[in-house]
Amino acid sequence: MDAVNTSKRPWGLKWRSSIWFITLIVGLGITTDLLVYSIIIPVLPFQLEHLGYQGVSGLVGWLLFAYSAGLVLFTPPIAAISEHYGERKWPLLLGQLCLAASQVMLMEVPTYWLMVIARVIQGVSSCVVWVVGLALLCDTVPEESVGKYLGFAMTGLSLGFLVGPPVGGALYNQFGFRGPFIFSIILTVIDFCGRLLIIERKDALRWGIDPAAVVAKPVSTPAEGEKKEGASENPVTPQNGSTDQTQPASQTSTFNQVPPAERLPLLKVVTTLLKSPRAMVTIMITLIQGLVYSTTEPTLPLHLQEIWNLTSSKIGIIYMAVVIPSLISSPLAGWLSDRGGSEWITMSCLLLAVPWWAVLTIQSSLPLFIVAIAIQSFFTSGILSPVTAELAAVSRSHAGIGYAHVYGAFNLCYGIGSGLGPVIGGQLYDHISRGWFTICFLAVGLFVSASLLAFCFTGDKPVLSRLISRHREGRLFKFRHTTPVPNLLKLAQLFKPTKNVMCIKYIWL
């Protein structure tokens, strides 16, 4: 039996199931999704004109809407199917085939209605990577590191938007309309090959490999109730593939149980999430972030041109100031969420973005505007990492609700927000005399409201609950003695003090 198991053991099992590889593939999938979405936006108007259509701007708008419609409509069934069958890899592969098919259709079809269908199919592919891909990552990563790895994967969102439009324009100028699509198809094939190599954690466990245990071991020294069993059993050792390893694999994998023991029907999942204030607030913050972030998409170029008379090339440079900070903020916010709690990082990002949205209304200085929009983008983009980590915690706290369920809700609300944002922003800018001012202070109002919701409901123990507990215990503003800090004790021993060295800690929360 040993020989049979060893001979069937997949090649590269350890690295193909590892956290870094899964994070890389999910991040690549998000990058591909956003790059394919944005690379064709600069070239679609020219193709529609080439095909003889009039009113091109309106037709492009409906193509963007078709993408959002496909994403929103197919998110619930994809989430339900992924959780029902407990599969991540095959939906990801099928989604990538849909993406390739949509690119070929957009490149070759001669009629507008077929282009609309292609964009709907592209929306279906997008919801697969955002729902199933994020669920796969949470299946693999130990819960104390979810925020960090989600943050790394989320950098693909900004990277795709950063690379897509300039690459699309350059390829169109050099090779014509098919150039951007050929590039997208090549990237899609590379992404598909990466997904083929994925080995899900539930499959790796059959061979005694637990990628979560390998990463979680150094940080699992604190005694935690839910991990005592994993610490007490024999750890999974990946060095050999004997049956001695495969037998305890199911016992030692206690980080993120896959699949859940009890599966709820979709209607029960929806009602459970609706009854959870923590879940609903997290989903509402997702919608607000998507709406606010996208309100500037149609209006920022118009504002820069109107106030400072900037050309398209200079506006493109300023867009780099919007995107590049988010490449840093996403992994940083995720890392901080794992250590300080998602409630603190979510609330901090929301509040720290508020003053910079107000500064964006100042029209006297372009350098000040660039600095403000870069800092605003840093904090606004940083919201998503703790929010997605919070959704993973919501899934773990409700029996029968899987990661695909909560990320389906995330994708649905983010899709609605990012779909409404450009419409609201464009209408406000066109029909109000101080449209940009109104957009900025709409963002201020929404972010302040979202921060209050996060203050009251986000986290295992929200900030408001902590303050109330401290107040009832009379410890809200108290000094107390704590145990000596080890480093200070060592320093004290060098000088042989006559009394114990004690640290005085100011207790706030």
TrEMBL record:
It comes from the Eukaryota. The chain crosses the membrane at residues 20-44, 56-78, 90-106, 112-137, 149-168, 180-198, 316-337, 401-424, 436-457. Residues 234-256 have a biased composition (Polar residues). It is found in: Membrane. Its main location: membrane. GO terms for molecular function: transmembrane transporter activity. It is a multi-pass membrane protein. One of its GO terms (cellular component) is membrane. CDD domains: MFS_MdtG_SLC18_like (cd17325). Keywords: Membrane, Transmembrane, Transmembrane helix, Transport. Residues 220-256 are annotated as: Disordered. Residues 22-462 form the Major facilitator superfamily (MFS) profile domain. Gene3D superfamilies: MFS general substrate transporter like domains. Belongs to the major facilitator superfamily. Vesicular transporter family. This is Major facilitator superfamily (MFS) profile domain-containing protein. It comes from Cerrena zonata.
